[in-house]
Amino acid sequence: MGERETIRRILEIEAEQRRRAEEDPLARYNAGRIKHKKQIAFHRCKKRNRWVFGGNRSGKTECGAVECVYMARGVHPYRKNRKDVFGWVVSLSQQVQRDVAQKKILHYLAPEWIEDVTMLSGKKGSPSGIIDQIRVRNVFGGISVIGFKSCDQGREKFQGASLDFVWFDEEPPRDVYEECRMRVLDRAGDIFGTMTPLKGLTFVYDEIYMNRRGDPEVWYEFMEWADNPYLDRRAAAQMAQAMDEKSLASRRFGRFAVGEGLVYPEFDERVHVIPPFAIPADWQDTISIDPGLHNPLSAHWYCADYDGNVYVVAEHYEAGRDIDHHARRLREISAAIGWHTDGKGRLRALIDPAASQRTLASSKSVSELFCERDILVDTNVDKDLFAGIAQVKSYLCGAEGRPRLYIFEGCTNLVREFKGYFWGTGDLPKKKDDHALDELRYYLMTRPRAALPERAQTAVQKDKARLLRRLRGGRGR
Question: Taxonomically, which superkingdom (predicted)?
Answer without folding.
Answer: Bacteria
